[in-house]
Every structure is written in structure tokens, then in C-alpha cells.
User: Fold LacI family transcriptional regulator from Streptomyces phaeoluteigriseus.
Amino acid sequence: MGPAGGAQGPDGAVRRARGRGRTTASMADVARLAGVSSQTVSRVSNGYAGVNEETRQQVLAAMKELGYRPNSAARALKRGEFRTIGVITFTLSTTGNVRTLEAIATSAAAEGYAVTLLPVAVPTTDEVRGAFSRLEELAVDAVIVIMEVHLLDAATVTLPPHVQVVVVDSDAGSHYTVVDTDQSGGTRTAVQHLLDLGHLTVYHLAGPEDSFAAQRRADAWRGALTDAGRPTPPVVRGDWSAESGYHAGLELAAQEDCTAVFAANDQMALGLLRALHERGRRVPEDVSVIGFDDIPEAGSFLPPLTTLHQDFAEVGRLCVQAVLRKMRRDGPQRGTTLVPTRLVLRDSTAPPPGGGRRES
Amino acid sequence: MGPAGGAQGPDGAVRRARGRGRTTASMADVARLAGVSSQTVSRVSNGYAGVNEETRQQVLAAMKELGYRPNSAARALKRGEFRTIGVITFTLSTTGNVRTLEAIATSAAAEGYAVTLLPVAVPTTDEVRGAFSRLEELAVDAVIVIMEVHLLDAATVTLPPHVQVVVVDSDAGSHYTVVDTDQSGGTRTAVQHLLDLGHLTVYHLAGPEDSFAAQRRADAWRGALTDAGRPTPPVVRGDWSAESGYHAGLELAAQEDCTAVFAANDQMALGLLRALHERGRRVPEDVSVIGFDDIPEAGSFLPPLTTLHQDFAEVGRLCVQAVLRKMRRDGPQRGTTLVPTRLVLRDSTAPPPGGGRRES
DNA sequence: GTGGCTGATGTTTGCGTAAACATCGTGGCG
DNA sequence: CGCCACGATGTTTACGCAAACATCAGCCAC
Assistant:
């Protein structure tokens, strides 16, 4: 029937792909077996209407028999998109980043997108710039950046023009689309909780200075105290680690008037608990401690930690939504989306030793 | 000169890629600007010898001017490989998986490979099979599975024939290439440490039954005790979480003769510490506790936890090495590689209350 | 000087897919 | 009866790159 030339392979059988010696069925193979053109296979493969049901079944049967899988490289080349989202992270050692990443991967999968991980070894501007530069030849359609974004200074880092970017943990909402936990609201909830218990003021065990999240938690803490007309004790700083929390805790334990501490994350709160314990200051009887994150272990600290729950899953979900919206050019291109926190009451907070105003 | 048709764009300028409206320079654009053929551009791009230095410089200049980036889809289609490693994980909620993943990503990047994350929502055989099936149309050359591998039962899961697989945390060394921490050796070190301190026997707070790692730690614990001629107390089980460790700890605290506990991971050890504390059993004076993993917080527990350090970075590195070796068809295709652990002595272990044999 | 060799470069081709366009039969309708 | 619309399917083409092959100049040896 058909003309002599054309797609007929050397032996009419499934072709042996070059390179790895693997065997792969292409659309042409399926088409041959089903007795249709490869275009019809393509239509079936992509679920287009306008294919006779009978033909469809034949094609599907042929696909199954040959174990046909669309070749994503060819598809990407043709369509000009990869169905892949890149995620740039500096570190996976913080709970938040990991949980966010996991949520991103899950949400992306639900949308039919894969996730490619782009680790940046050292968070220097150069490294980040390098990552963004490499990005352009990477097979991604969009990028989500989970990082302190001082490094994303628009002046020095050139973003690939066609790649959509969403950022977590930044205040660069005017330049990028940002999704983040409501650091400020959460912090104010924490401080207010302690003030309501009767504490005269609240100390702050802050995260590192170069972190936006830490900065905003510190700012909100200061704001909450100021609004309530309370004095603001000096800030003690850690680097997010439990170890640094311990050292900071030794300092705080020495402060006689310190009856309440807001730790910028749970890990530091853990170290703080140990320091207070060592120095004989009981929690919560002598000192109340509140954390931030609600890591899974927080309920097993000594004592179980009252903390602010971050909904990382939601953050991840919104990141994916936002980046897909940007790609599809609908919805707002910029601005910040905040995910609320939730106060989780456990056993590390109580009224101050003298007995403050009781609520119940 | 050339025939009328051909690569000449509508206006001889950088083409506007369809789909996203983005602007991309192709090899042809670079070639036109540099006044060479696209093949020469390809040679320069791939660093082949046999290109005149002067020509090379011209091409490089043209590349730079146009901001040329090779299109990875086209490259993958042509070469038949993606330079991408897929990583299948069930959960990122355990430290080990995350740290391993991070190491894999870093090592892969160093080898010029990207990492695509393939989360499996629920660890059922069906889900895993689905993941492996989807895999074939995913843009990966090889796969690393970070998972309890009961689910990788060869009878039910068909692995894509051309995709190389390396598995973490499994005893399926005869079927797959496996890289793992030396669970057994680590466990024996832990048990021996406690016996050396003078404890008559060691209780075991085990991980979930369906985990290979947990199983092997339990087996090694039993073996070590048996070899030393000590009785083996009944196993208490948790699910890796601190919460489960707490509940198990309440049980253990009730055992009068329990002076030493080997917890299968640090999180459970944390919960155990809390339970012991609540029940008035001091650590390490009354009960010694040893963990497994050496998570960053372990040094900040109350008391700081003696534990076995796992070198996740090395595990990740070896995974990448192994999978690349498999792809390149050199080196052993199967077998198990073990990464040794290291005992980290902190404050949670001591001789038993009665005072055992002292070492120093 | 002629043939063959080497190094540098150009030309052709095809990877697997899917958009755009072409074809072909069928059935409705003036 | 003839024309057109329409649904179903086939054919052509191009996505960007790189292997394979072709070309071509310069040079050496005999």
C-alpha cells in the first residue's frame, strides 16, 4: 500500500537506540504495529479528540505491547518546555527548607511536573550567580529559590529572562514573587502569648543577622514589645543551631530578670532548654520558652516546647501554584503571599515566678 | 551558495522560540554571527580538539554576545542521555534521607549531573511500581532509591531495563547495587561500648519492623549480646519518631533491671530521655542511653547524647559514584558497599548504678 | 608532480515528537 | 447530482544538536 520509502526500519523491528545500547520503542514503532501513522499515535498519546475509538484502542494496545513511553527529550525539544521545576537551595540542613522542598516536589508531581534540585554549595553571590547561569542550560521551565535573598541582589545576579522565579524567605516582593510564612504575625502571637501570661517583657534569642527570616522575627518581636509599651531587652544571637542556642542560653540564664524567651527556632530553643537546665533555672516555672517552627521533635523536648507551627506544606504548594501561574501568564506576577502560623501550646510556657496576671 | 531552503531564519536574527515567547539563541545563530558552520560551533561547545584557536575565539565571542546556552532537550535527544539522576524517596522527614539526598545532589553536580526528585507519596508496592513506570518517560539516565526495599521486591516491580539503579538501605545486594551505612558494625560498637562500661546487658529501642535498617540494627544488637554471652531482653519498638521513643521509654523506665538502652536512632533516644526523666531515672547515672545517627541536635539533648555518627555525605557520594560506574559499564554491577560509623562519646553513657568494671 | 596524508571546516542526516497542512471518504443539502 | 462541510487520518516539516561523512587546502615523500 504505502510508498516504498519512509519510516521502515532496517528490519521493521523496534530500533536499538544508540548510546547506551538500550531498546526503546518510538512512536513510529507503535504506528507500524498498529497500522496507523505516527501522527495518530501522537494524538492518542496526548489524548486529543478526533481519533476513532476503534483506532484508539488499537494504538493503545500497540503501545502496551511495545512498552512505549514518550521520549521526554524529543517532547521537550518539540514543545519548548520541560515540565520541570528547578529548586535552588543553599542547604538542606534546616527543617524548613526540607519540608518546603518536599511539599514542592509533591505539589509539582501532582501538576505533572518534575523537580530538579540545584544545590548551591556556598551561599556567595558568585555561587548563586553561577547557579543561575548554569540554570539556563538546565532542563527547567521555572525556578523556585529557597534561600536568604540578600544574595539575589538584582544588581549582580542576572536571572535568565525566560525562567520564572518564585522565592521563599525574602522581602523582595517588589521584584519577585515571594511565598513565605507569616514571620511577623507568628512572632507577635508568640510575644503576646507570653505577655498575656503576665511576663513583663520577653527576651529574644535571634537567628543569624544575614537571614531575612531571623531579621523579620526580630523586628516583629521588637515591634510587639514596643506596641505593648514594654522595654526591649538586648537581643542574643545564635545561628539556628542547637549548639548556638546553648551558648546563648548560658548568657540568658545569667539574666536575673529574664523570665520569658522567644527563640527564633526550635533547635535553638532546644539548646536554650539545656543551658537553662544546667544553670538550675526551671522551665516553665522560672523561665518560659517559646520556639518557632514546630519541628516534629518539639513535643519531646524537656519540657515539651510551646512553639509556632509553620505550615511548610502550604508554602510549598503555594510556591508551585505561583510559579505555574507565572508561566501561564495569569495571575499576579509579583508580590508576597504569606502563610499563617499556628500557636502550639505545650509545657514550656507559664506565668512568671512572681505570678503574673492569670488568665483562667 | 547554499540551496534556497535551509536554516536561514525569517530575518536572519535570533529566533523567537515558540511556546513561551522567549528568545533563545541556537547554534545556527552563533554560527551565522561567527561566520562558521553550526558544526564548528558544536565542536567548540563540546570542547573538541581540531578547531583552530582563532576560530575558537570567534565562536566563543559570538556565543557570549548572543548569550548562547546549549539546549539540553536537543542535546539529550541527540545523545540519548540526559545527564540527570533520578532519586526516589519515600519521605524526607528522616534526617538520614535528607542528608543522603543532599550529598547525592552535590556529588552529582560535581560530575555534571542534575538530580531529579521523585517523591513517592505512600510506600506501597503499587506506588513504587507507578514511580518506576513513570520513570521511563522521565528524563533520567539512572536512579538512586532511598527507601526500605521490601517494596522493591523483584517479583512485582519491573525496573526499566536501561535505567541503572542503586539502592540505599537494603540487603538486596545480590540483585542491586547497594550502598549503605554499616548498620551492623555500628550497632556492635554501641553494644560493646555499653558492655565495656560494665552493664550486664543492653535493652534495645528498635525502629519499625518494616525497615531494613531497623531490622539489621536489631539483629546486630542481638548478635552482639549473644556473642558476649549476655541475655537478650525483649525488644521495644518505636517508629523512629521522638514521640514513639517517649512511649517506649515509659515502658523501659518501668524495668528495674534496665541500666542501658541502645536506641535505633537519635529521635527516639530523645523521647526516651524525656520518659526516663519524667520517671525519675537519671541519665546516665541510673540508665545509659546511646543513639544512632548523630543528628546535629544530639549534642544538645539533656544530657548530650552518645551516639553513632553516620557519614551520610559519604553514602551519597558513593551512590553517585556507583550509579555512574554502572552507566559506564565498568566496575562491579552488584554488591553492597558499607560506610563505617563512628562512635561519638558524649554524656549519656556511664557505668551502671552498682558500678561496673571501670575501664580507666 | 602526483598521490596520499593531515588538519580544519562544511554538509548531510536523523534523533522522536507534534504542529501545520494535506488528503480522503461520507453525508447533508440546495 | 454536485458541492461543501466535517471527521478521521496521513504527510511534511522543523525543533537544536552532533555523529558521520564530505570537502579542501597545504604539505610531504617518492
